[in-house]
Amino acid sequence: MGDPFSLEVAHTLSSCMSGIRTAGDLVLRMQLAKSMRIDEAKKYVAEKLGVEPIDLSDSDRMFEIRKKLNLGRPFDLNRAPRGIEAKINIARVLGITINSVELFKEKTGF
After folding, report:
1. Is 19 or 64 the better-scoring residue by pLDDT?
2. 16: pLDDT strictly greater than 70
């Protein structure tokens, strides 16, 4: 069955990183997708984004990085990718499989 609190712990830690305002959501995805511990997930995400791990919690720096890579942003929503578009870009940048992205590709022939 696994640890019933693992999702809660991972979510709590990534939320403390401000979620989509910084890179908390990306770190959480790596924790869940690859069973990484938080430090390992931060290092992996920082490497993929081309920044230092300390930059992952800098909202100004991450706003620009998320804008450049089209990973979705909490502000400037008129021009920011949302929903499945953001998830497709996240899967590509992090090199992971996201079930909803795969289902979308399957149904649309994307």
Report:
1. 64
2. no
